[in-house]
Structure to design on (262 residues):
């Protein structure tokens, strides 16, 4: 299936009803791993036309709780659908069924140790100590075949597995960005339809956000093309620019269209 240029969608006004942008962070909002002043300006411009931003990231609960507090966004979903942080006025909301957190963390640690018996060079990610619902390790040095093998090993033990540009995740099998996003939409945005939600991402752990049966309006920033042959669900549209430049491209087009429609 071909991925259409983003400008094509705006030429047909398909995004005229968008009210919420649900976006990945690393490699999608960031540029060379950093937030830029231009990105913060894009958030502010979207807000001026009534479009809210919800970050949906694989980053840890510890990191995301701070981001949701300081960034000019509606909120942020952490750990690939694990929990929601929606500003200082709303407490953390767990989005996955975990009855005993201490036992869950121990089971995740045991699964990671099991993976190390096959891949002894695996190293826990720096942010793993700030995590609640999943377990992460560094992706550096892992080939595509290694990632596929890790996925199979996790599946055999009834765990889910995914990866991004920065790290690999051991998680609940039901835990995914789309599932977390749908839970948040149902509770906090119950009147929003599929035509009002735009999803944006760049890597395999964003794949569920590209499922057109759930989110028909999806965009990949240009660097998503590096993973095109690994995605069962591909974005409907792709930007010209990569990383944060691609997100700013999306934001600019949304703002321009909103002003025309006024």
């Amino acid at each position: 299936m071909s991925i259409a240029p983003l400008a094509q969608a705006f030429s047909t006004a398909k995004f005229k009803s968008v009210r919420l942008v649900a976006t990945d962070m690393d490699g999608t909002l960031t540029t060379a791993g950093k937030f830029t002043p231009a990105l913060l300006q894009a958030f502010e411009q979207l807000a001026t036309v009534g479009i809210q931003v919800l970050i949906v990231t694989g980053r840890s609960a510890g990191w995301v709780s701070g981001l949701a507090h300081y960034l000019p966004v509606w909120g942020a979903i952490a750990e690939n659908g694990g929990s929601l942080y929606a500003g200082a006025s709303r407490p953390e909301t767990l989005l996955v069924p975990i009855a005993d957190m201490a036992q869950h963390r121990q089971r995740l640690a045991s699964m990671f140790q099991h993976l190390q018996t096959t891949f002894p060079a695996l190293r826990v990610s720096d942010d793993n100590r700030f995590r609640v619902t999943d377990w992460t390790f560094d992706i550096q040095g892992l080939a595509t075949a290694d990632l596929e093998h890790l996925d199979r090993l996790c599946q055999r033990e009834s765990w889910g597995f995914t990866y991004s540009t920065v790290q690999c995740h051991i998680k609940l099998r039901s835990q995914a960005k789309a599932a977390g996003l749908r839970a948040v939409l149902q509770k906090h945005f119950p009147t929003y339809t599929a035509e009002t939600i735009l999803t944006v991402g760049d890597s395999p752990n964003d794949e569920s956000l590209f499922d057109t049966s759930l989110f028909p309006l999806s965009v990949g920033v240009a660097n998503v093309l590096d993973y095109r042959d690994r995605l069962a669900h591909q974005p409907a549209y792709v930007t010209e620019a990569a990383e944060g430049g691609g997100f700013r491209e999306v934001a600019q087009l949304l703002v321009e269209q909103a002003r025309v429609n006024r």
User: Anything to note?
Assistant: The two ends are 34 Å apart (CA to CA). The chain is about 35% helix and 15% strand. Helices lie at 6-11, 37-48, 61-70, 101-118, 144-156, 177-188, 243-261.
